[in-house]
Specification:
The structure holds 2 protein chains of 2 kinds. Chain A is mainly alpha-helical. Chain A has 10 helices and 2 strands, in the order H-H-H-H-H-E-E-H-H-H-H-H. In chain A, helix 3 runs antiparallel to helix 9, helix 5 crosses helix 6 and helix 7 runs antiparallel to helix 8. Classes of the chains: A mainly alpha, B mainly alpha.
Chain lengths: 304, 248
């Protein structure tokens, strides 16, 4: 058994050329940019790029801000900035947990609806395909905040069903409002992933007498999961950052609570350290997700 | 125009669908001003963000390490934090540090108003993405192409205008379009600092006329049509400027 000879790398810029000539019309930067633009378009939002270094800088800046606040507090004989912030941590953590809860639930709801909508988008029936495409585009083009407002104001505060009264608190409305854009983006991710599977897979399955449903569930979707995972996780990180939008419509999540804490303390020197502290929490939560996304993306990068 | 106004008034009497923005002159003007504010905000931010992008791309090619690092830090910060937080940061944190000035009526007011802060904040947000887009676009043009232009007798300026920029711009366009669409969607956040754009004006109108469902639906469709039209025009433009033989 002889090992196959190592593949020779194509010359620089080769991939950027459709015709495959050796003249470098455009350098690899062009191809990279095009790939990124296509990915961002699919996702509806640029990819997060968090690095560990950013966290270190954030910590340093926070320490600087807190140190300034501390010096001011000591000079004017007020309570130390650190103890003032530490006192509110349990409350703020509760608010942050609320953000996480909203993000997880609306991601779950959005994914469920989005996968369904995405599968409708690859239906063989033109009316189904067109209407699901329309719904997807509609919710992709609407700003998140407007959708959030829409659900906030137009969903009833309780539903009467067969004598039962199901209450509809504002955070559940926020979950529904945030899950709508997630649904549209997941739908587009599913469609993009299915379309990126080479047609040879479909044809091979057909020649083996697989039905369309069998092909879809046993051959196409399992391959798609790998490709959908990185953009899906990135969408989750973006959604987590977007949960602060709920503070505009009055859900008592971490931003609302921070504002209330600042009002209660009535100290302007706490403004920057406290907001910086919240920023750090978000960073700590999103950083592992962003790293894992990058890692998975690199791992699953399949050359076809 | 009067028959149309009457028809909408009749619609309200008969079916309870109260579209004051059509038949009421005051609300109509408010809404048009809101729409104009949204468009103006998007256009000014787009222009400024392109300027920031070009400037940043130029600074990133600097020989000084710290210049490059600062630009990189700026990009990282504005890419990875929610635009709402940036807006609050500029308006509440930076805005409160600036001195207050006396206006024409003798009242004290902040030196920089909320509209200006919205423009500054959104431009920096969109600009952070543009820096990398422009840098990649210019990097994509190979030296050999520039040399070929030189050998044909182009001078530096002509090479840049006729060869490098057209190529770089076409490479940049898809990414720039994504950015523009995001920018238009992000202008809704200016609501949070009371900039009278479409969402804010709609909020005022439904507070006055108590027609939340109508205004909300109108708003949703208005934004979808605005963004949808933009996406469509940009896609057409992109297709007409496509580099032959590049990409799909």
């Amino acid at each position: 058994m002889s090992r196959p000879p190592p593949k020779r790398r194509p010359p620089l810029g080769h991939d950027a050329l459709a015709g495959g000539t050796d003249l470098p019309v455009l350098l690899p930067a062009a191809e990279r940019l095009q790939r990124e633009a296509a990915r961002d378009r699919l996702l509806g939002w640029p990819r997060l790029r968090l690095r560990g270094r950013d966290g270190v800088w954030l910590c340093l800046l926070l320490l600087l801000a807190a140190g300034t606040a501390e010096a001011q507090a000591l000079a004017s004989g007020r309570e130390s900035a650190f103890t003032a912030i530490a006192r509110w941590i349990p409350l703020l953590l509760q608010g942050f947990g609320f953000n996480i809860l909203i993000s997880v639930l609306s991601m779950a709801l959005g994914t469920l609806l989005g996968v369904f909508l995405g599968l409708l988008q690859i239906s063989l029936l033109p009316p189904v395909r067109f209407s699901s495409w329309l719904v997807t585009q509609f919710f992709r083009n609407a700003p998140w905040l407007v959708l959030l407002f829409y659900c906030m104001f137009l969903l009833p505060f309780e539903i009467r069903l067969l004598g039962w009264r199901i209450p509809f608190p504002d955070w559940i409305k926020a979950i529904i409002g945030l899950s709508l854009p997630v649904m549209a983006n997941v739908s587009e991710i599913v469609r993009g992933a299915v379309n990126s599977i080479p047609s040879g897979q479909w044809e091979a399955a057909e020649s083996l007498a697989f039905t369309r449903r069998q092909t879809l569930w046993q051959i196409i979707i399992p391959q798609c999961v790998k490709r959908m995972l990185p953009p899906w996780m990135n969408l989750y990180a973006i959604l987590t950052m977007a949960t602060v939008l709920a503070s505009i419509v009055g859900v008592s999540e971490v931003m609302t609570l921070t504002r209330r804490v600042l009002a209660a303390e009535d100290r302007s020197d706490l403004l920057i350290p406290l907001y910086g502290f919240i920023l750090l929490w978000f960073f700590a939560y999103c950083y592992p997700i962003a790293r894992l996304t990058t890692w998975l993306e690199r791992r699953y990068a399949v050359k076809l | 125009m009067d028959p149309i106004y009457d028809w909408f008034r009749q619609l309200y009497w008969d079916h309870g669908i109260n579209l004051t923005i059509v038949y009421d002159g005051f609300d109509r003007r408010r809404m048009l001003n809101g729409l104009w504010m949204t468009i103006r905000l998007s256009a000014i931010c787009l222009l400024l963000s392109v300027v920031i992008g070009i400037l940043g791309a130029w600074l990133q090619g600097s020989r000084l390490v710290w210049t490059r690092r600062i630009v990189q830090g700026y990009i990282q910060f504005f890419r990875n934090t929610p635009p709402l937080v940036q807006l609050y940061f500029f308006f509440f944190a930076v805005g409160s540090l600036l001195p207050r000035v006396e206006n024409q009526f003798g009242f004290m007011e902040p030196m920089i108003g909320n509209v200006t802060w919205a423009i500054i904040s959104l431009s920096f947000f969109a600009g952070a993405f543009n820096v990398e887009i422009f840098r990649s676009g210019i990097e994509a043009v190979p030296k050999a192409t520039v040399e070929a232009a030189e050998s044909l007798g182009y001078n530096r300026w002509q090479t840049y205008i006729y060869v490098v920029l057209p190529l770089a711009f076409r490479v940049c366009l898809p990414a720039l379009n994504n950015n523009l669409v995001n920018l238009v969607k992000t202008t809704t956040l200016a609501y949070a600092i009371a900039v009278p754009e479409m969402l804010y004006v709609a909020n005022q109108i439904w507070s006055d006329a108590v027609n939340v469902p109508e205004m909300m639906t109108f708003l949703l469709f208005a934004y979808v049509i605005l963004v949808g039209a933009l996406v469509w025009v940009m896609n057409r433009w992109e297709r007409s400027l496509r580099l032959p033989g590049f990409g799909r």
